[in-house]
Design brief:
TPR-like_helical_dom_sf, six-stranded mixed β-sheet, Adenylyl/Guanylyl_Cyclase_3/4, 23 helices, alpha+beta
C-alpha cells in the first residue's frame, strides 16, 4: 500500500478574484500586472496579519487559508477596505476591485496546497460576491454570526457546479460603524447554479424600491412612494402573496439580478422600476419578471404631467396594480398547463378554470365550471374558489338576462367568501353586480363602494359602480367610473361591456359624437355585442348621420334577427323613461329605413 503523504484538517478558505483584470490587460497589460501585484501584496499582508497564509496563485485569483473563521472574515474586510482606498486614488476605468468567497470545512493538505469540496465551494462562493464584497457559506456564518459586527444578507440555497449538496449563500459586510459599509448589491453578478424549489401554494410577488434618476430629492421620495402603493394595492388583490416592504426594500439596488433576489425573498415574481423627472413631467418605467426563468413578463412606460404629487402617485400606483394583477394571473394560467390535471392544487385549479373562462366559448365555460367544482370539492372553504364560482354564475346570469336562480347562487357563494375573508373586495363587488341585475342599484352602490374602498384598483368594481350610477339616472356621475376602468384595465377581456356602458352614458348626456366613437371601440372588441351597436345606431340618427345609421341597422338586423325592444326594457333603470329614450333613438332609424 502506498504511504499516505497528506493530512486532513478543518480550515477556513478564502477564494479571492480580481474583477476586470482581462479588461485592464486589454487597455495596458503592464499597468494591469503592476496593479494586480500591488493589490496581491495587500491581500497577502492582511491575511498574514490575521494569522492566515496565501497559496495557489493562478492568474488573477488568489487562495488563502485560516485556522479561525473569524480571523478570515476580518482579514477579508481589511484587505477589501485597503483596496477600495487604493482604487479611489486612480481613474475609474483603471480601478481593479476584488471579490472574495469564504467557506469553512474539511480539507486535504498536501505539500502546502489544499484540496477538497470545501475549497471548491469557496471558489464558487466568490462568484456571488459583489465587487469589493464578500460572500460566505452558512458553515462559516455559524462560526462568526455572534462574534463580529458584520451584517449578513441571506441569498438562499444554491446547487453549485460539481458540489453534491446545496450551499446556503450569504453576503457579508461591515456594520455601519466600520470603515467599510455593507456590500452593495449593485455589482453582484448573476452566479451560476440551480435555485431552490418554488414552494407550493400561490406564488409570491416582491416589489423592489423604484430607482429615482436625477438629482431632485422629490423624485426619490415619489419613486419609493409608488413602490409602497403598489405593495399595498397588490396585497388587496388577496390571491397573491406579497413580500413585505421591510424585506423587499433591502434590495434597493437590483444589480444582484432578479433570479437571485427572487430566490432570497422566496418570490416568483419581481416588480422593479425607474423614475425620472423632466421639467414638469414624470417618466416611470416599470417591469415584471418571472424569477423562475428570468423572463420579462411585462414592461411599460408611464409619462405623466407633474401637477399634484399625491394624486399622481395614486393614479400611477393603482394603474400598475391593476395591470400586474392581470399579468401575473395570465402567467399563472399558462403555468398550470405544465402540471398534470390530477396534480393541480386548489389555487392552480382556479387559474386553469380562469383560462377557460377567458376563452368565452360555451364549451370552455363548461370546462371552467369543472375545474372550479373540483377546487370546491378539494377545499370548500377556499375564498379563491368561492369567488370564481360566484363569478361563473354571475356571468351565466348576465347571458340569461338575470336568471334568478343563478343570482341566488352568486349571493350565497359571495357571502360565504366574505366569511372566509372579510377584507376581500371581490365578494362585495359580486354582491353589487347581482343587485344591479335585480334592479336594486342603490343597494348595489353600497356593496361596490366597499369593494372600491378595500381595493381602489379593482376595475370591475369601478365599472359596476358606473352602471349603478347609470341605472340611478346619474349619467354624469357614472362617466368617471367608466373612464377609471379604462385607465386601470385597458386590455381587460370584458372591456367591450365597460365601453358599451360608457357609450350609454354619453347618450344620456347627449354627447352623440363621444357615444358613437365609444360604441365603435366596443364593437371593435366584440362585433356581436348587440347593445353597443344598438346605441351607435341611435346616436348616429340623433347626430343626423342617417345613411350611416341605415348601414349599421342592416348589420344589426342580420346579426340579431330575433331582437325585441324587451331586451332594452329589461335594463333595470330606476326611471323607465331612460329605457324609452334609448328605444326612441333606435326607432328613428327603423322608421327612416
Amino acid at each position: 500500500m502506498a504511504e499516505r503523504n497528506y493530512t486532513r484538517q478543518l480550515a477556513t478558505i478564502i477564494s479571492i478574484d480580481a474583477v476586470g483584470f482581462s479588461r485592464l490587460m486589454g487597455i495596458d497589460d503592464e499597468l494591469a500586472v503592476a496593479a494586480f501585484e500591488e493589490r496581491r501584496d495587500i491581500i497577502a499582508g492582511s491575511c498574514g496579519a490575521f494569522g492566515g497564509r496565501t497559496f495557489g496563485d493562478a492568474g488573477d485569483s488568489i487562495m488563502a487559508e485560516f485556522g479561525n473563521p473569524i480571523e478570515a472574515l476580518r482579514a477579508a474586510f481589511d484587505f477589501q477596505a485597503r483596496i477600495v482606498a487604493l482604487n479611489a486614488a486612480v481613474a475609474e476605468d483603471m480601478r481593479m476591485p476584488f471579490r472574495a468567497g469564504i467557506n469553512t470545512g474539511d480539507v486535504i493538505v498536501r505539500e502546502g496546497r489544499l484540496y477538497g469540496d470545501d475549497v471548491n465551494i469557496a471558489a464558487r462562493l466568490q462568484e456571488f460576491a459583489p465587487h469589493d464584497g464578500v460572500a460566505i457559506s452558512a458553515t462559516t456564518w455559524h462560526h462568526v454570526k455572534d462574534k463580529t459586527a458584520a451584517v449578513f444578507t441571506d441569498l438562499g440555497e444554491f446547487n453549485l457546479k460539481n458540489i453534491a449538496l446545496p450551499v446556503q449563500v450569504l453576503i457579508a459586510g461591515r456594520g455601519s460603524n466600520g470603515p467599510v459599509a455593507a456590500a452593495s448589491f449593485a455589482s453582484i453578478p448573476t452566479a451560476p447554479g440551480h435555485y431552490r424549489p418554488v414552494p407550493k401554494g400561490p406564488p409570491a410577488i416582491a416589489v423592489l424600491p423604484f430607482q429615482g434618476n436625477g438629482s431632485e430629492p422629490d423624485v426619490g421620495y415619489m419613486a419609493d412612494g409608488i413602490a409602497e402603493d403598489i405593495i399595498y394595492g397588490l396585497s388587496n388583490t388577496r390571491w397573491l402573496s406579497v413580500i413585505a416592504k421591510g424585506s423587499s426594500f433591502q434590495f434597493r439596488d437590483d444589480g444582484l439580478g432578479t433570479r437571485l433576489i427572487g430566490n432570497a425573498l422566496g418570490a416568483r415574481y419581481i416588480v422593479s422600476g425607474t423614475m425620472a423627472r423632466y421639467d414638469r413631467q414624470i417618466r416611470l418605467n416599470a417591469s415584471l419578471t418571472d424569477t423562475s426563468n428570468g423572463r420579462l413578463v411585462w414592461s411599460q412606460r408611464f409619462d405623466r404631467d407633474l401637477v399634484d404629487i399625491f394624486s399622481l402617485r395614486d393614479q400611477i400606483g393603482s394603474e400598475i396594480v391593476s395591470i400586474l394583477d392581470k399579468e401575473v394571473d395570465r402567467a399563472e394560467q399558462a403555468r398550470t398547463f405544465q402540471v398534470p390535471w390530477e396534480s393541480l392544487e386548489t389555487w392552480q385549479l382556479v387559474r386553469r378554470g380562469r383560462w377557460h373562462m377567458n376563452r368565452r366559448t360555451r364549451r370552455d365555460t363548461e370546462i371552467a365550471l369543472d375545474f372550479f367544482d373540483k377546487g370546491y370539492r378539494d377545499d370548500p372553504n377556499s375564498s379563491a374558489v368561492l369567488n370564481e364560482l360566484a363569478w361563473w354564475y354571475f356571468w351565466r346570469a348576465w347571458l340569461r338576462f338575470g336568471d334568478s336562480d343563478d343570482l341566488e347562487k352568486v349571493e350565497t357563494l359571495a357571502r360565504k367568501a366574505l366569511l372566509m375573508d372579510s377584507l376581500d373586495a371581490r365578494p362585495h363587488a359580486y354582491l353589487g353586480a347581482a343587485d344591479i341585475m335585480r334592479g336594486l342599484p342603490a343597494l348595489a352602490a353600497e356593496h361596490l363602494a366597499e369593494a372600491i374602498h378595500i381595493n381602489p384598483s379593482f376595475a370591475f368594481a369601478r365599472s359596476a359602480m358606473g352602471s349603478a350610477y347609470l341605472l340611478l339616472g346619474d349619467a354624469t356621475g357614472a362617466i368617471p367610473f367608466f373612464l377609471d376602468t379604462e385607465r386601470l384595465s385597458p386590455f381587460d377581456l370584458y372591456r367591450f361591456h365597460n365601453l358599451g356602458e360608457l357609450a350609454a352614458a354619453y347618450c344620456f348626456v347627449e354627447d352623440w359624437q363621444a357615444a358613437i366613437a365609444t360604441a365603435e371601440r366596443s364593437l371593435n372588441l366584440s362585433p356581436s355585442y348587440f347593445y353597443a351597436r344598438f346605441l351607435k345606431i341611435g346616436a348616429l340618427m340623433r347626430s343626423g348621420r342617417r345613411d350611416e345609421a341605415a348601414r349599421e341597422l342592416a348589420i344589426f338586423m342580420t346579426r340579431h334577427p330575433d331582437f325585441s325592444e324587451q331586451r332594452i326594457r329589461w335594463i333595470p333603470f330606476v326611471d323607465p323613461t331612460k329605457n324609452n329614450f334609448l328605444i326612441a333613438n333606435f326607432d328613428q332609424a327603423k322608421s327612416a329605413a
